[in-house]
Amino acid sequence: MVTAHRRESYGAGLENVFKALSAFAWKYQDEVGFIHPVHPNPAVKEALSRTDFHSRKNVFSCDPVSYLNMVHILLHIDYIATDSGGLQEEGSALGKRVICLRDITERHEGVWDGLEVLTGTDPKKIIEACEAVMQKSSHIPSYVYGDGNACMRIINILETEYPHFLLDKKSWIDSASSDCKEKNI
């Protein structure tokens, strides 16, 4: 899967990304396929128009997909090339190798965990990263961003350690409902 849309990469950066991915797609056309939900921003479409990425036989481009469809796609692919922080997290949680098409990321955990590699928009680094992840896909979920059970752990601690602070559900719903009515929400 490929997604690229960050404002910091507009112009030559995005063009470099798509040129590198096009070269990789051509070199491995019988081994690798790409799904590219194209971001609607005109800057992305302009960068794409200056490359032949979408003309490759192993590249499937489509309109942006819903979150549920994105997760379905992620479950059936081996790796992701993206500049999206959300996809970095989803990919790691699903055990997918992630090529982060940025020079820096706010989500360092995936890099530290070894499932992600930062390439920026440098074509050589992108191609090298694609070749590396192609050789060693993971599929072992990484919980560097959490295991999805934080809410239940918090509730358990509150119930155990601070039971007098918790209201029963009905009281909370009634209270919230009353607040909303007062504020015309």
Helix content: 40-55%
User: What's the β-strand tally?
Assistant: 6
What order do the SSEs take from the amino end to the carboxyl end, as H and E? EHEHEHEHEHEHHH
Shape: elongated
Weakly predicted, low-confidence segments:
none
Give the tally of structural domains. 2
Biggest sheet descriptor: 4 strands, parallel
Characterize the structure shown.
The protein has helices at residues 12-27, 42-49, 67-75, 85-93, 109-113, 123-135, 150-161, 169-182; strands spanning 2-3, 34-37, 59-62, 79-82, 97-100, 116-118. The protein is of the alpha/beta class and 185 residues long. A four-stranded parallel sheet has the order 1-4-5-6, sandwiched between helices. Helix 1 (12-27) packs across helix 6. The mean pLDDT is 84.
Fill in the keyword field for this structure.
46% helix, 185 residues, 2 domains, Rossmann fold, 4-stranded parallel β-sheet
Task: Give the secondary structure arrangement, pairings included.
Blueprint (H helix, E strand, L loop, with lengths): L1 E2 L8 H16 L6 E4 L4 H8 L9 E4 L4 H9 L3 E4 L2 H9 L3 E4 L8 H5 L2 E3 L4 H13 L14 H12 L7 H14 L3
Parallel strand pairs: 1-4, 2-3, 4-5, 5-6
Helix pairs in contact: 1-6
Q: What's the short story on this structure?
A:
The protein has 185 residues and is of the alpha/beta class. Helices cover 46% and strands 11% of the residues.
